[in-house]
Design a protein that fits this description.
Elements: H1 10-13, E1 26-35, H2 39-50, E2 55-58, E3 74-75, H3 83-90, H4 92-115, E4 122-130, H5 139-150, E5 155-157, H6 159-163, E6 174-183, H7 185-198, E7 202-204, E8 209-215, E9 218-223, E10 226-235, H8 246-251, E11 253-262, H9 267-272, E12 278-281, E13 288-292, E14 296-304, H10 313-324, E15 333-343, E16 350-355, E17 358-362, H11 369-383, H12 403-436
Parallel strand pairs: 1-2, 1-10, 2-7, 4-12, 10-17
Antiparallel strand pairs: 3-6, 4-6, 5-6, 8-9, 9-10, 11-14, 11-15, 12-13, 13-14, 16-17
Helix pairs in contact: 2-7, 2-11, 3-4, 4-11
């Protein structure tokens, strides 16, 4: 695979035709330079172009080449950090405003799809977040109370309602969010790039930013073949920003997750999964999945700081599917691929102005598609002087992620949480067996 090829995935196999864009060449003047052609950079550039700003975006490979073009395609409110934890740390008012910003991100993505007249980008509605252990009799009250605190639209479902749609004994109660939806992420990224250009913005591929300099009151972003002089710069890459912005690179951990798409399964999939929206479970490194192409199962999961692709990835993903739906039998995996995401140790995005005119919109690993739009919206509003909603994210700054030691510590935390999840399920299963006997 060359740098201008998309990594093999079901998304790449079903992507829209898109010509390669020319690399940046020579000196270009702009109001805003955006570094990174994933969702964070694309939404930021589009929202700024919609406000009349002269925008130039540079991407080191192809638009949507990284995690933005390979993820589960879930568009839903909330963040990777637990919502209850946000309330505990920030208080109800601040947490509610952050949640509202994430819902704004959902609306931005939906508006974009509608404005493109591309209903095919929309691949399903609503989301279930399922519990792998019984959450107790007070679960409905707890979920309704949390929804009321956040002014959110999610609701509790009992176990019977969940299992009427998902034929597995692995799941118990669930949280149903009717405002969520799913997309074809790579085609959405390509559509966003085309819209930026339609609005007189410039998008350059194969243009890795290698240097960032302050020049008086402006900034200069340099690539191998050119440079951008701009009043503002938005760093929308992830842990690959080391050469151009070491501070941000040190604040973000590269973390791998994996996605697989099965062969067409026909009726046996329809019998097992009678839900056309998204499903994810509540474990830290839980499963997330949805039906695509009528009767294929797109299945994602696992989190590790080891970013090498496992040699037995297809077998591993098949095992994860069958652990929940053994009735599917020996399903064939036609596609399996890794995605390298950027995580911050505090599990929140990095959004805001870190120096005058220098902005960050990054670390969206584990959050979903909507949060990239939410962060981009806050940054665009800050650049154009509309408001300072980007300060909602200020408590979660760009502190050091710990380098190699940080990766090891993070992996140990993941392993501890996974063992805890495993033990909780094992203990509950053992108790259930005792009751039956």
């Amino acid at each position: 695979m060359t740098d201008n090829d998309y990594p093999a995935s079901w998304y790449a196999a079903t992507r829209d035709a898109s010509p390669e864009r020319l690399p940046l060449s020579g000196l270009v003047q702009a109001d805003v330079a955006v570094v990174g052609g994933g969702f964070a950079g694309l939404h930021t550039a589009r929202l700024l172009a919609m406000r009349g700003q002269r925008v130039v975006l540079v991407e080191r490979r192809r638009i949507g080449w990284g995690a933005s073009g390979r993820n589960g395609g879930f568009v839903s409110p909330g963040y990777a950090a637990r919502t209850a934890a946000l309330v505990d740390r920030l208080g109800v008012t601040h947490a509610r405003r952050l949640y509202a910003q994430s819902r704004r991100g959902v609306a931005i993505v939906r508006e974009a799809i509608q404005s493109f007249a591309r209903p095919d980008l929309l691949m399903g509605e609503a989301k279930l977040t399922v519990a792998r252990t019984d959450q107790g009799a007070d679960f409905p009250d707890r979920i309704r109370a949390l929804a009321a605190k956040l002014d959110a639209g999610f609701e509790p479902w009992d176990t019977a309602r969940v299992r009427a749609l998902l034929s597995t004994e692995r799941y118990h109660q669930a949280i149903h969010d009717p405002h969520s939806f799913q997309v074809h992420p790579l085609n959405l990224a390509l559509a966003l790039a085309r819209d930026i250009e339609r609005r007189a913005g410039h998008v350059h591929e194969m243009s890795e930013a290698v240097r960032l300099e302050r020049q008086g009151t402006a900034w200069c972003v340099r690539t191998k073949g050119g440079e951008i002089a701009a009043h503002h710069v938005v760093m929308a890459g992830n842990a690959d920003l080391g050469r151009v912005q070491p501070r941000l690179a040190r604040a973000i951990l590269p973390v791998a997750t994996y996605v697989a798409v099965t062969a067409k399964l026909g009726k046996k999939l329809a019998d097992a999964v009678r839900w056309t929206g998204a499903i994810s479970d509540t474990r830290r490194a839980g499963d997330y999945y949805r039906i695509v192409d009528g009767d294929r199962l797109l299945w994602g999961g696992r989190i590790t700081t080891d970013t090498r692709e496992p040699a037995n990835l297809r077998a591993t993903m098949r095992g994860d599917i069958l652990s929940v739906y053994p009735q599917l039998g020996e399903v064939a995996i036609e596609y399996a691929w890794p995605g390298i995401m950027g995580y911050a140790p505090h599990m929140m995005p990095q959004v805001g102005e870190i120096q005058p005119g220098l902005w960050v919109c990054s670390a969206f690993g584990g959050h979903g598609v909507a949060q990239t739009a939410a962060g981009a919206d806050a940054v665009a509003a800050g650049i154009t002087g509309e408001d300072d909603r980007w300060k909602l994210f200020a408590p979660y700054g760009t502190r050091w992620a710990g380098g190699v030691v940080g990766r090891l510590a993070t992996q140990l935390v993941y392993w501890r949480l996974q063992v805890g999840d495993w033990w909780d399920e094992k203990r509950q299963a053992r108790n259930a067996e005792t009751l039956r006997t």
